[in-house]
Design goal:
about 375 residues; 13 helices
Length: about 375
């Protein structure tokens, strides 16, 4: 279908909405893609300077999450649009990408409406593992925003924790553990005392997750293709990590996955956790999808559920420091300005570490060891 990009609705309203879309793509290019993906940085910048294309986006997509830049970029890649592998570079390549996207707009929009962006990064397990291994065993894991469920299998991966040896000595292996035959080996750079690293895998007896759009990349090939499309062009390491994680969890029983709202579904699902296990409710880079009032409601609900559970339980949050400011505001060591994309790892509302956004680093905060003993 060919779309007339200059005629998508009321001119005055569309112009205002198109400006907002353009600004969203401009900010995505500058704050999200810059330094991470040259292809996405250039493509989103070009879209922000294309008024007619922004008019198409604003006039045919509902406002909010469906207008996320990375959703459009992934949708075109998912449908094998031009330059899907490495992204369009240069004016001519952008012209081909634009023409193809407009010509296939019905299919692209269908992906928009069916799919959502996901945060299912298995490497987050490397930063969560030290906390999970320290809690009373066995564990019942409940992930809010479980996406593809890959974060519910930390015991199926292998881990290498390394530190900078200093004086040009290179990286020093501080700890290595995990499933010896796992196809996925996660390497995480660390800072802090050596005794803060795990010595064994956690014992997990129950796994469950909630997500608005849960995926099954093991049994549903199209779900796996969507997750692969969400990996930014040129990030071969992350693409390989995703494939290895899927292979690692393939032999395991599927976790219990519930489709729905995090707050609405949480009480009933938490009640299913076996009473003899320590219930751990955790989430990684999920709460930005909720408005601030709903984030506070979610936190109150988690605390209430754990306090009311016989034997209690624990809450692990793994979010950007701006998402839960009442937690990170009291951190013994606030994230540094250079850590703009880093996440704050907290146990029961107490910050314990700053981590890389994709689990590549774990730096304990001063005073974190004392907070873990409380």
């Amino acid at each position: 279908m060919v779309v007339n990009v200059g005629n998508t609705g009321n001119a005055g309203r569309a112009a205002g909405n198109a400006w907002g879309v353009a600004e969203r793509y401009r900010e995505f290019s500058w704050w999200e893609a810059r330094g991470r993906s040259d292809a996405h940085e250039e493509l989103s910048a070009r879209i922000s300077q294309d008024p007619e294309f922004c008019d198409l986006l604003s006039g045919s997509l509902p406002a909010g999450h469906k207008q996320q830049p990375d959703l459009l970029l992934a949708a075109v890649r998912h449908l094998d649009g031009p330059h899907a592998e490495m992204g369009p570079r240069g004016a001519a390549a952008y012209g081909r990408w634009r023409e193809w996207t407009i010509r296939h707009w019905d299919e692209v929009r269908a992906v928009f409406m069916q799919r959502a962006t996901h945060t299912g990064e298995p490497a987050h397990c490397a930063t969560l593992l030290p906390l999970l291994a320290r809690l009373p065993q066995p564990l019942a894991l409940l992930e809010a925003g479980a996406s593809a469920g890959l974060g519910l299998h930390p015991d199926r991966y292998r881990y290498r924790y390394e530190a900078d040896g200093g004086d040009g000595a290179g990286d020093v292996l501080r700890a290595e553990l995990g499933a010896p035959e796992s196809p996925l080996v996660l390497t995480c750079r660390t800072g802090g005392a050596a005794d803060e690293l795990p010595e064994r895998l956690p014992q997990i007896v129950w796994r469950a997750g909630i997500d608005l759009d849960p995926l099954d990349p093991v049994d549903e090939r199209d779900d796996l293709r969507w997750l692969q499309a969400l990996v930014w062009p040129g990030d071969g390491e992350r693409a390989a990590r995703l494939s290895a994680a899927v292979d690692a969890v393939r032999p395991a029983p599927r976790p219990r996955m519930v489709r729905g709202d995090l707050i609405d579904e949480l009480p009933a699902l938490a009640a299913e956790a076996p009473p003899e296990a320590t219930l751990v409710i955790f989430h990684s880079a999920v709460l930005p999808s909720l408005p601030p009032a709903r984030r506070e409601e979610f936190v109150r609900l988690v605390r209430s559920l754990l306090e009311g559970r016989p034997g209690g339980g624990h809450w692990i949050s793994h979010e950007h420091h701006s998402v839960l400011p009442w937690i990170t505001g009291s951190a013994p060591h606030a994230p540094r300005p250079g850590d703009a994309r880093h996440l704050t790892l907290a146990l029961d509302g107490r910050p314990v570490a700053v981590t890389g956004p994709h689990g590549q680093s774990l730096h304990s905060l001063s005073g974190a060891r004392d907070s873990l003993r409380r």
